[in-house]
Amino acid sequence: MNTSLLVALLVGLALATAAYAAYRLVVELGQADTAYRDRPPRAFLWVWPLLNIVANTVGVLVQGARAEALRARLRRAGQEYALTPQQFFAGKILALGVFGGLGWYFSGEGTTLLGIVVGGVLGYMYPDIWLSDHTKKRNLEILKALPFFLDIVTLSIEAGLNLTGAMQKAVDHCKPSPLIVEINRVLRDVRAGRPRVEALRELADRLDYAPISSLVSAMVQGELMGSSLGPILRAQSDQRRIERFQRAEKLAMEAPVKMLGPLILFIFPCTFIVLGFPIVMKFMGSGL
């Protein structure tokens, strides 16, 4: 048999074996049970099979307290039913490889190792930065929706409904938001037989957000003491509006400081060039 033909057959067989092995790997490790889970974030969805393969491979590194800490962070960001701690850690590993490869590609001669290290570190940190930003954005949406929600609950309680019925009425009349998602979860827990106080405390633990913790504390105290919840909720609504106004004032006062950087780096140099160019040309024309 011709040697080149034999080599070609062996190479083809090796490629076919590698393709079959990759297929079996995707089938056995690249799938995840998503029947009762939310849709993953877009970046994770793009590499979903590879993400699950890495998660099943390095998942042993995320166990015990480390897994619980990651799960708590995912819970605060509303991603508890979209990603597991192992999948999130696998995303960090994949980002490390991708950014490290980009650092190697764009690094110059003699800086290859530095580019790989810097890119890898940035890639490993990027999912944490994304999760933190997503949590802050979600908390801001909750803070914006909270006053109107409390107004509806207060009016419903003063009209004669109990707290559960008032919360359901507010959910029906409020726009979709992360707050409504969390309140719906509380209502499902209550309908499933869980005590309302425990469901509310679980809400505070799940979000770990100061306005919600303060609201839940006031509601639980009023529930246990048997006092009227109307004045309590109205005071909480007023407090949340004051916090929103103070936050807007803070952002307005920070705006001039944030503008100093662009002014100094971009606007002032252009202005000086426009003003100074005719003067420089006149001096050059006069022989100076």
UniProtKB/TrEMBL annotation:
This is Type II secretion system F family protein. The lineage of its organism: Bacteria, Pseudomonadati, Pseudomonadota, Betaproteobacteria, Burkholderiales. InterPro entries: T2SS_GspF_dom, T2SS_GspF_sf. Residues 1-21 form the signal peptide. The keyword Membrane applies. PANTHER family: INTEGRAL MEMBRANE PROTEIN-RELATED, PILUS ASSEMBLE PROTEIN. It comes from Ideonella oryzae. It holds the Pfam family T2SSF. Keywords: Cell membrane, Membrane, Signal, Transmembrane, Transmembrane helix. The chain crosses the membrane at residues 45-67, 88-106, 112-131, 260-281. It is found in: Cell membrane. Its main location: membrane. It is a multi-pass membrane protein. Residues 149-275 form the Type II secretion system protein GspF domain.
